[in-house]
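Assemble and predict.
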Amino acid sequence: MTDLFSKFDPLIQMRTDLLSTGVTDPFGLVMEKVISPTVAICNGRETILLGTYNYMGMTFDADVIAAGKQAFDLYGSGTTGSRVLNGTYSPHRDVEEALKEFYGMDHAMVFSTGYQANLGIISTIAGKGDYIVLDIDSHASIWDGCKMGDAEVVPFKHNDIEAMEKRLRRIPEGAGKLVILEGVYSMLGDIAPLKEMIAVAKKYGAMVLVDEAHSMGFIGPNGRGVAEEQGCLDDVDFIIGTFSKSVGTVGGFCVSNHPKFEIMRLVCRPYVFTASLPPSVVATAATSVRKLMHAADKRAHLWENSRTLHKGLRDAGFQLGTQEPQSAIISVIMPDLERGAGMWEALLHEGLYVNLARPPATPAGMTLLRCSLCALHSAEQVQTIIGMFERAGQKAGIL
Amino acid sequence: MDRAATAEKIAALIAPFNKKEIAVTDATTFAGDLEFDSLTVMDFVAAIEDEFDIIISMNQQAEIETYGQLVDAVVKLQG
């Protein structure tokens, strides 16, 4: 018998080698108690959270929690069904209304996760004979959506407008075209030049899908994302987003002004053939989304945190993923996986949690310590974090 | 462009990516013999696409394992 697991042997060996150095397993962390959006008890120690996607700190918002509790009481723990059968309750409709208000768009469709939103929309709208032109650093859910569909998939170099244009120009005449971009690329925390890229896409008659998962609530005057910030939201055909980051719960969505958009509810398999979100989840999401519309002060404070941390780490001598802070993600580049894991552990001992990111999730084979800030991190916490990085950097031999 | 001329151009484009300078034949594989990783594949495919002004989609790339198969694909894509 051929062991179907033998293909994983190199990864198993890599993990064994890493853990044999005595380092704490970076992928086995458990939070025993969550005190607030920025503090938890991890492995018995009070820890500042700097590796969550809780950008706007909505997870403990009193109105959000109250909405969830009320939905539990009114609608029960789950729907036990698909959105197109018995799984649409009034809170599902309400959260879609909240998204339409938030983005100022005509249609909104909620999926059970952000992953499924990309999987479903991409695989359904780009079919046989169509072309998908996408950034090579796209998220796994985008790639999986491409793989699930039948379109021709054509990647281009990250954020390279000329490389994108060349590929669009070569697509056979008459073929359908979908350009897929992200507002914020989550590994390095850099943003895309959406205005220029979308203008090129439109010149070649392509429809444009932008994943704004990591910008929602924070970037843009109304928190609608990088496309809003750059003044090109009206040219985006499909925005993909998630409830699992700034919104503070779980779920995914697509908003669009396409006049025929509603047909998606019948033809999109990752929407149809799965259970809908629990009513408590969509009720918390609706409340959170509406509160994010009026969160300008929090947005300003989050930008302040991002600038302070970026400058503090750069001045300390760390190599960062971007020259200037472009989002709420500050990525610290590690020399290799072993030292990255050592640094990650040293930070944990200091009482700081960050994300350790490694290939294949990262571009160019990099090992990264990814810091994602929260609007509820105090200015004092950010200074504490910088001190922790300095001490851990010395200890781990990075500085 | 005929197969020989196409093959010659492709051979020239492989050179900068052929770190171990192995002798390339029609049977040479990109992943195995030339040890191309995913980043190298992207840069190499972009170089071929620009040279011949064609698109080699990832779907088509999945069918191409050897140098010979690449030459055949490029000849066909040029029409």
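The helical segments of chain B are 3-14, 38-52, 58-61, 67-77.
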